[in-house]
Amino acid sequence: MFKGKFIDNLPKIYGTYTGGFIVFIILMAIAEQAGMSAKLIGIFFVAFTVLIYALIGYLSRTMQTDAYYVAGRQVPTVFNGMATAADWMSGASFVAMAGGIYFKGYGYMALLVGWTGGYVLVASLLAPYLRKFGCYTVPDFIGTRYGGNMARLSAVIVLTVASFTYVTAQINATGTIASVALDIPFEIAVYVGLASILMCSMLGGMRAVTWTQVAQYIVLIIAYLLPVFWISNKMGAGVFPHFMLADEVARIAELEAQFGLGEVKNSAADLKQVPKGLAGITKAHSEVNTTPWKFISLAVCMMAGTASLPHVMMRYFTTPSVKAARRSVGWSLFFIFLLYSSAPMLATLSKLSLMDPNLATGIIGKSITEVQAIDWYQNWNQANLMFVSDFNGNGTLELNEFFMGGKAVVLATPEIAGLPYVISGLVAAGGMAAAMSTADGLVLAISNALSHDIYYKMINPRAETAKRLIVARVLLVLIGFAGATIAALEIQGILGSVIWAFDFAMSGLFFPLVLGVWWKRANAQGAVAGMLGGLIAGSAYLIAVRSGYPGFWGVTQLTFGIVGSLVSLVLMVVVSLMTKAPDAATQRMVDEVRIPSGKAILGKQH
Amino acid sequence: MSFWVMFRLLTYREGKKMSKQQQHWEKTRMLLFVTLAIWFVFSIGIFFFGAEMEASSIRPLGYPLSYYMTCQGSLGIFVILIFWFANRQEKIDEEFGYTEREDD
Description:
Order of helices and strands of chain B: HHHH
Distance between the termini of chain A: 37 Å
Radius of gyration of chain A: 24 Å
Order of helices and strands of chain A: HHHHHHHHHHHHHEHHHHHHEEHHHHHHH
CATH topology of chain A: Sodium/glucose cotransporter
Shape of chain A: globular
Largest sheet of chain A: 3 strands, antiparallel
Radius of gyration of chain B: 18 Å
Oligomer: heterodimer
Helix content of chain B: 55-70%
Number of domains of chain A: 1
Number of strands of chain A: 3
């Protein structure tokens, strides 16, 4: 069926895969009609997709360094775009984003703007130049551009702090989904999630991760878009929700006024009854509800963080050329845009279906006992994601008496809108794909930096290929287990950890990376001062704010990257100017990086 | 970031005779400046005026302008901007003969 080279057959292979997945969804729908239980459908969806990823991971096994580290640098533009989109969109984007928009409205959308705007910085400031450099990892660039083990080591430290913060959140998310879908305790589900993640990455490194990420993107985007379109059509809100929900947005504003949003404040005693993690609707859906600085500072942090997170950057090392790297950033953002522009629409549909008394699904204004008798309410109440209570004792459910978990917007809306259970199974598989693909990229970024930059470049430069790749795999497993162990402790919520990861990355890596290309005068001393100083300043600010310090300039624990990166910039410029300019060879190297043609700085095998 | 770019542009001393590579870099830098300026407007600039956008009578597809920009507007502009940037940069590379050979 597939003759010729694997790369040339990609459209056919993934076309067949997509078709096969759709057939699988249809089969499940038929099975549901035939009486298959909801639980079994959930298990089938998650188990089937995870097995496919594991199979792809196995088929992509390799013993070559350039295949293991950069997928042989032959990933075509569009496919790399899909892989990056999956790499990028984590459990947080898939499960938590629509919920955040649902509860916090405009103020939360800063994340949407930040997580897309950052790609403009990636495309224009960094990706093509780092691709030309020919490095295997981000610290590889820092170490070669600035020279010296100190710079390399500092970059590895920042990378590890940022990526590790991020990966615990993702393993946590895979655990949550696996525990719900497979009906096993969370502490065990975390390790099931970890095993799936390792199966995709261990044997084939970047090559395996690339081809599983493409497969995961296809699953997650179908799982996200299908319910949005279906619900919108079922509610009669519009065939194409993205362009047609203006009336619904206006209707929500109308209902908010009618139900007296924000007029009744719940007493502290009442709120104590509400299970942890659930929230009520307290902010208007579409109103501008935050100060410009709050919005902008959060967006800026997410944008600079995007451009500094190594697991994203290293995806652009896998394209065949500099030109392809540049275009690939555009495709990445296009594929991300498909999901991000749908999240606000899902939040709108979800909120309206719960609020509007004219809809069969609307619950606000109904009697409490009636709501408590609804099947889906009972299910999600049991899962600790929904709660109602008659605070004022009038027997009807008021807007301030309804509470929901952020995850429920994505997970429960299909069921509330009356879609068949097969859609809920699909959504679980999509969430799993999103969390797994990001975790894979992150675990690989950390273990590659440790195996390539620390072990091979600093400890044992004479190691043979086979030995290097074994060390890389051992580290991969160790990092994975460390991540899972911390994830099982559940220290910080998923979204909080993700935002911190961006701030850490921005504090330590943004300016050292950008100035490495755009400022020839930047030298090793400056870069080391910038990376370590930025990371320390950012972390110190975070710790101070967490322990009660009020902070300055309105910088919160979500935007501490602003402090970190400013310290990093100042230190880097001042220390660079105070010390010797980089030697002629380094200056020539920077000149060479700035043009797309010619040989890469680092050879094919290094 | 863009302040730094502006600073570099303002303080850039134009040599009497620039080499091919310098000219290429000069154009690349101009393109970066334009790209970042557009990026700045739609990622930061307009959000200084959230309240004004909300009150505005411009309502794309019927949505309030502030809502539309955060949901689709800015996001879509970023996608187009990157492809536009990639095209322009390819043109610049071609002009100076720095395009990669296929087998590179």
